[in-house]
Design goal:
This protein has about 350 residues and is mainly β. It has helices spanning about 5-25, 335-345; strands at about 35-40, 45-50, 55-60, 65-70, 80-85, 85-90, 95-100, 110, 120-125, 125-130, 135-140, 150-155, 160-165, 170-175, 180-185, 190-195, 205-210, 215-220, 225-230, 235-240, 250-255, 260-265, 275-280, 285-290, 300-305, 305-310, 315-320, 330-335. It has a single domain (about 5-345), classed as Methylamine Dehydrogenase, Chain H. The chain has a four-stranded antiparallel sheet, with no helix packed on it. The termini are far apart.
Length: about 350
């Protein structure tokens, strides 16, 4: 074989490899950064807020498999999501609150702010409480979800990252200051009635959920904090969980007597993933299970026996938690064969 033939053959092989890589690159699912998730109340739909990729919609089969349906993007950064009776509310950290009609499967934008911020959402009855970062707390009347109406707002000295409401109070996870309690008996005039922190320099309060007289806060490098918020007294830290020096509390979800916490830890893979607690006594949670996950984790969402865990650049995971002490991984998106490639080129 001549030198020219060798060169020509090498060029052909290189071209085939390049074409193959191009095809492979084109097939990699583009998931963006999957931060927030919400399951429909019926448990057969999953919605994922994926940063600059927008909102992903999945159908969940009776067997527990994820079936990708669509992605929609209407500008800004999709950070958090809540589902409600054929509607989905999205917290857009660059534009504010967004409302999608999902009654026909594929989401349709029906209302949106464009001049605010939104980081977290909690829905209680006909009200939507929105943690609006440096804009504080916003309260919307969503009795007509096609035309939300801003009832009232109040600022905090830090940045409101998430919110949970119960009764006449709204509890804000303020990134710098910790937990800020608002009296919202008059939604048009929310007022601060209490603050509690665990680090006066930077509390790193990120995500909040609650049950009764207790709230649970994923506190970044400070792990997990449980705070008693009985109206008969001042808020009090009743429990602190530190999963490790390099671990971060990223998400929390209360489901009955069980608390699910997503923990991010790049240095210790055995800690990175889902931590499960028995909270029959909320003031003294008992760790009953850990489920390690590859790559960084973010939000936890649940409905019925299903739990969704967002996995950053690597997509989303769906669990069956009918046996809380033994979470069963049902499916992932993308499929396992694509997850490593998605992490690096799926944005």
């Amino acid at each position: 074989m001549s030198k020219k033939q060798v060169v020509r053959g090498g060029a052909v092989i290189a071209l085939i490899l390049l074409l193959g890589l191009g095809v492979l690159f084109a097939l990699v699912p583009r998931v963006g950064y999957c931060f927030g998730a919400a399951l429909s109340q019926t448990g057969d739909w999953l919605f994922v807020a994926a940063g600059y990729k927008g909102l992903h919609t999945f159908r969940i089969t009776p067997e527990g498999s994820l079936r990708y349906v669509s992605t929609i993007y209407d500008g800004g950064y999709y950070r958090y999501v809540e589902a409600l009776d054929g509607m989905v509310l999205v917290a857009n950290s660059e534009q504010g609150l967004m409302v999608y009609d999902v009654s026909r499967g594929s989401p349709e934008l029906v209302w949106s702010q464009t001049d605010s911020l939104a980081y977290g959402i909690h829905i209680q009855d006909s009200l939507a409480y929105v943690a609006a970062e440096r804009h504080g707390l916003h309260i919307f009347d969503i009795s007509n979800p096609y035309e939300p109406r801003l009832l009232g707002s109040a600022t905090t000295s830090g940045r409101a990252w998430d919110v949970w409401a119960n009764g006449g109070y709204a509890y804000v996870a303020d990134l710098e200051n910790g937990l800020i309690t608002f009296d919202v008996t008059d939604p048009s005039e929310p007022r601060i009635v209490g603050t509690i922190t665990w680090d006066p320099e930077f509390a790193s309060a990120e995500i909040i959920d609650g049950e009764g007289e207790y709230v649970f806060i994923a506190s970044g490098e400070h792990g997990l904090h449980v705070i008693g918020v009985s109206i008969s007294g001042d808020p009090e830290i009743v429990y602190h969980y530190d999963p490790g020096l390099d671990s971060f509390g990223e998400g929390v979800k209360v489901m009955g007597d069980v608390l699910y916490v997503s923990v991010g830890d790049r240095a210790h893979p055995e800690e990175n993933g889902l931590h499960v607690f028995d909270i029959q006594d909320p003031s003294s949670p008992e760790l009953i299970a850990k489920f390690p996950v590859t790559d960084w984790v973010e939000d936890v969402a649940g409905a019925g026996n299903q739990l969704a865990l967002t996995n950053g650049w690597s997509g989303v995971l769906l669990f069956n938690v009918g046996q809380p002490g033994s979470p069963e991984l049902m499916d992932t998106y993308p499929e396992e064969i694509w997850r490593m490639l998605t992490k690096y080129v799926g944005w």
